[in-house]
Amino acid sequence: MADGASGDAFVAFERVQKSYDGETLVVKDLNLSMPKGEFLTMLGPSGSGKTTCLMMLAGFETATHGEIKLDGISINNIPPHKRGIGMVFQNYALFPHMTVAENLSFPLEVRKIGKADREKKVKHALDMVQMGAFGGRRPAQLSGGQQQRIALARALVFEPELVLMDEPLGALDKQLREHMQFEITNLAHQLGITVVYVTHDQTEALTMSDRVAVFNDGRIQQLAPPDALYEKPQNSFVAQFIGENNTLEGVVTAMKGDTCEVKLDSGEMLDATPVNVSEVGERTRVSIRPERVEFNKDRLKEGAHTLKAEVLEFIYMGDIFRTRLRVAGNDDFVIKTRNAPDQVRLEPGSQIEIGWLPEDCRALDAG
Ligand SMILES: Nc1ncnc2c1ncn2[C@@H]1O[C@H](COP(=O)(O)OP(=O)(O)O)[C@@H](O)[C@H]1O
Ligand SMILES: [Mg+2]
């Protein structure tokens, strides 16, 4: 199924647009469909429209145009509490005057669930996040990580099929954040719930998700599993936004099916895979990941174009070596090599030749 088609999708956005002021569109043309049980992350810079999309799905904002469907049914006119969606926000939003157990009981009361049933579900949800002993405390008596766990339990307590999370780990320190990333994905898969997760942290997006939707300027730039996003970016925004990336600018001089030839602005030639260039004479930005650059000529294909490079800086990082080069007038060309017993440590000041396989070098739009 194409990315945009909704078919038997569990969650679907169809040609959704959103304007807050009636003039500018902050969500421009959103088409997205998710199967049940998927963990999908919306990743993008601040202001790119992620929270707005989540709020429309939750029902706290209305779409200006287009349709949002849940399990095949349009939910545009269904109020938030009837959508059966759990939500977790960055600032926890726990009620400070209620105990933990009362916080969890609240969404059940709203749904008119009886007392005995409520107590059972609250206990179960607290056990799920390993907070069974904390039901009597107030939020202020908990650490940030514990509060976040309670917020998660509260989103899960009424057993929603869909849970939305908006930067839920943003306030936690690195170690706790990584631990919670692991807990959230585990729990989601165990319970078989569908999750839409929002973050601006690419590592979080890559490590947690089945698929990632990269947002910029109110549009999805690419929607793909983490490995495809990193290895096969479809445009120069995605190539720049995800992971470390070297870019060289030039003009397409020949199209040869699977490969194209690019003349860099510095005058040198290279081979690349045409991604979103199609014509000779078109300007392009070629993109090469630091770990795909080769300076051992034996490992390159016969006849492959190579570029001259000057070593500017060698940084020992333990597991890897990070070397900065001057390549085709670019002083920020980085290569990464694994610290293996036979690996060469490049000397600053030395002149080398570098190359790569054309499939690792992607000719993208000029940005
Ligand atoms: N309630 C609102 N009223 C008016 N403009 C808003 C509102 N919420 C968000 N915006 C604007 O919409 C754009 C997208 O915001 P948002 O969806 O919060 O992005 P993100 O979550 O990706 O940072 C931004 O330009 C923001 O200023
Ligand atoms: Mg946001």
TrEMBL record:
It is an enzyme of class 7 (translocase). InterPro entries: AAA+_ATPase, ABC_SmlMolc_Importer, ABC_transporter-like_ATP-bd, ABC_transporter-like_CS, Mo/tungstate-bd_C_term_dom, P-loop_NTPase, PotA-like, Transp-assoc_OB_typ2. GO terms for cellular component: ATP-binding cassette (ABC) transporter complex. Keywords: ATP-binding, Cell membrane, Membrane, Nucleotide-binding, Translocase, Transport. GO terms for molecular function: ABC-type polyamine transporter activity; ATP binding; ATP hydrolysis activity. Pfam families: ABC_tran, TOBE_2. Gene3D superfamilies: 2.40.50.100, P-loop containing nucleotide triphosphate hydrolases. It comes from the Bacteria. Its EC number is 7.6.2.11. It catalyses: ATP + H2O + polyamine-[polyamine-binding protein]Side 1 = ADP + phosphate + polyamineSide 2 + [polyamine-binding protein]Side 1. The keyword Secreted does not apply. PROSITE patterns: ABC_TRANSPORTER_1, ABC_TRANSPORTER_2. Part of the ABC transporter complex PotABCD involved in spermidine/putrescine import. Responsible for energy coupling to the transport system. The complex is composed of two ATP-binding proteins (PotA), two transmembrane proteins (PotB and PotC) and a solute-binding protein (PotD). Belongs to the ABC transporter superfamily. Spermidine/putrescine importer (TC 3.A.1.11.1) family. This is Spermidine/putrescine import ATP-binding protein PotA. It comes from Mameliella alba.
